[in-house]
Design the sequence.
């Protein structure tokens, strides 16, 4: 049984969250998964800090240690507009940078986080992932997401529609 809490990140936790994301990016590279390499060079450090400041980033903590992090935007980011097109007034959350520290992978934490989002926030969730990562693609399908399409630059668009009472 997983014993951790999910809560909004604090600004003081920004360096730790960035370190977790870089740890996962390095793990991906080490395992020949071509994804998130830009994070290793600090490619999104400022965006990550801003998402924390805007109360859009969450952490999963166990014994005061951050073991996972993710960001949920209620407004489209520039990237979301690129992937999904311009959407106005949509009741959608856009999931970004879901990361579980390597030593905690394969323990159901990612699945628990996706379930927590669904059960707690009552909104349709959208995300994208690189099309050349079939394990990630399958992971999102196993967790109730539906493939909506693929962008011309090779990103799969997934959506999970919130259905009340299910």
Sequence:
């Amino acid at each position: 049984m997983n014993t951790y809490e999910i809560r909004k990140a604090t600004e003081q936790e920004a360096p730790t969250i960035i370190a977790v994301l870089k740890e996962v990016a390095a793990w991906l590279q080490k395992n020949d998964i071509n994804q998130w390499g830009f994070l290793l060079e600090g490619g999104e450090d400022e965006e990550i800090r801003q998402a924390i400041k805007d109360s859009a980033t969450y952490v999963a903590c166990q014994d005061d240690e951050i073991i996972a992090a993710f960001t949920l935007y209620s407004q489209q980011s520039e990237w979301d507009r690129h992937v999904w097109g311009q959407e106005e007034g949509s009741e959608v959350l856009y999931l970004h940078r879901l990361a579980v520290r390597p030593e905690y992978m394969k323990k159901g934490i990612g699945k628990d986080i996706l379930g927590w989002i669904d059960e707690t926030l009552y909104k349709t969730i959208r995300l994208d992932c690189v099309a050349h990562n079939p394990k990630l693609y399958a992971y999102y399908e196993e967790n109730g997401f539906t493939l909506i399409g693929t962008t011309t630059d090779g990103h799969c668009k997934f959506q999970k529609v919130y259905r009340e009472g299910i």
The radius of gyration is 15 Å. The longest strand covers residues 65-73.
